[in-house]
């Protein structure tokens, strides 16, 4: 069985690209069946189109109420009958309808070692704080900001001369590898969650 992935993006989509490349191999166990964005004209959508993957745009400003946006995003994903939805640089918090449909099957990759530095500026906040290890976290999404159960983490060093950009790039290399490895394992082996403890494999 091939696990059906919908990937949500807001920007350059390098994590999406890593997934598109990995899913080209049938033994990976998953395929990207659609890509959604909250913005038109982003590189992530172009990357999807190059792979003949259908796309949709759900822009918050096109809806009178946030709840209507949430309903549209939910329906747009449901159309593709996903097994797993991956937020790969999707910079919007989903609402209650989306979570009612997909909680437990919606994962996000965040560019910090949670629970430290949640939110929009993980690498910048880590650099400012002066930590010596930064990294990325793949986690389930719940109704909080980057608070859901952690699936995988990877650490990279913070170097003395790092700028936000150099640290971000180092994190993203490790983040993409982790995303591809972990989503593949989730697809092939399944997972269990006991309270906050996520275990890959059929336990
Ligand atoms: C990733 O580092 C992700 O953690 C953060 O935004 C970045 C998205 O990068 N939320 P890309 O669009 O996949 O290149």
Automatic annotation (TrEMBL):
<feature type="domain" description="Formyl transferase N-terminal">
    <location>
        <begin position="4"/>
        <end position="182"/>
    </location>
</feature>
<keyword id="KW-0658">Purine biosynthesis</keyword>
<comment type="similarity">
    <text>Belongs to the GART family.</text>
</comment>
<comment type="pathway">
    <text>Purine metabolism; IMP biosynthesis via de novo pathway; N(2)-formyl-N(1)-(5-phospho-D-ribosyl)glycinamide from N(1)-(5-phospho-D-ribosyl)glycinamide (10-formyl THF route): step 1/1.</text>
</comment>
<dbReference type="Pfam" id="PF00551">
    <property type="entry name" value="Formyl_trans_N"/>
</dbReference>
<dbReference type="InterPro" id="IPR002376">
    <property type="entry name" value="Formyl_transf_N"/>
</dbReference>
<comment type="function">
    <text>Catalyzes the transfer of a formyl group from 10-formyltetrahydrofolate to 5-phospho-ribosyl-glycinamide (GAR), producing 5-phospho-ribosyl-N-formylglycinamide (FGAR) and tetrahydrofolate.</text>
</comment>
<feature type="binding site">
    <location>
        <begin position="91"/>
        <end position="94"/>
    </location>
    <ligand>
        <name>(6R)-10-formyltetrahydrofolate</name>
    </ligand>
</feature>
<feature type="binding site">
    <location>
        <position position="108"/>
    </location>
    <ligand>
        <name>(6R)-10-formyltetrahydrofolate</name>
    </ligand>
</feature>
<feature type="active site" description="Proton donor">
    <location>
        <position position="110"/>
    </location>
</feature>
<dbReference type="GO" id="GO:0005829">
    <property type="term" value="C:cytosol"/>
</dbReference>
<dbReference type="InterPro" id="IPR004607">
    <property type="entry name" value="GART"/>
</dbReference>
<dbReference type="InterPro" id="IPR036477">
    <property type="entry name" value="Formyl_transf_N_sf"/>
</dbReference>
<dbReference type="GO" id="GO:0006189">
    <property type="term" value="P:'de novo' IMP biosynthetic process"/>
</dbReference>
<protein>
    <recommendedName>
        <fullName>Phosphoribosylglycinamide formyltransferase</fullName>
        <ecNumber>2.1.2.2</ecNumber>
    </recommendedName>
</protein>
<feature type="binding site">
    <location>
        <position position="66"/>
    </location>
    <ligand>
        <name>(6R)-10-formyltetrahydrofolate</name>
    </ligand>
</feature>
<feature type="binding site">
    <location>
        <begin position="13"/>
        <end position="15"/>
    </location>
    <ligand>
        <name>N(1)-(5-phospho-beta-D-ribosyl)glycinamide</name>
    </ligand>
</feature>
<feature type="site" description="Raises pKa of active site His">
    <location>
        <position position="146"/>
    </location>
</feature>
<keyword id="KW-0808">Transferase</keyword>
<dbReference type="GO" id="GO:0004644">
    <property type="term" value="F:phosphoribosylglycinamide formyltransferase activity"/>
</dbReference>
């Amino acid at each position: 069985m091939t696990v059906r992935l919908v990937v949500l993006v807001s920007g350059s989509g390098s994590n999406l690209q890593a997934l598109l490349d990995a899913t080209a191999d049938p033994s990976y166990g998953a395929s990207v069946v659609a890509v959604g964005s909250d913005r038109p004209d982003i590189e992530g959508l172009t990357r999807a189109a190059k792979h003949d993957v259908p796309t949709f745009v759900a822009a918050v400003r096109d809806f009178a109420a946030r709840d209507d946006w949430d309903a549209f995003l939910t329906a747009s994903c449901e159309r593709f009958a996903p097994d797993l939805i991956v937020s790969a640089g999707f910079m919007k918090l989903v609402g209650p309808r989306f979570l009612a449909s997909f909680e437990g099957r919606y994962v996000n990759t965040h560019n910090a070692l949670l629970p430290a530095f949640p939110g929009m500026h993980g690498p910048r906040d880590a650099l400012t704080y002066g930590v010596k290890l930064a990294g990325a976290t793949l986690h389930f999404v719940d109704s909080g900001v980057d608070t859901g159960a952690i699936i995988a983490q990877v650490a990279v060093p913070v170097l003395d001369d790092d700028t936000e950009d150099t640290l971000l790039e180092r994190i993203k290399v490790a983040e993409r590898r982790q995303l591809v490895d972990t989503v593949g394992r989730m697809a092939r082996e399944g997972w269990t969650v006991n309270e906050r403890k996520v275990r890959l494999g059929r336990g």
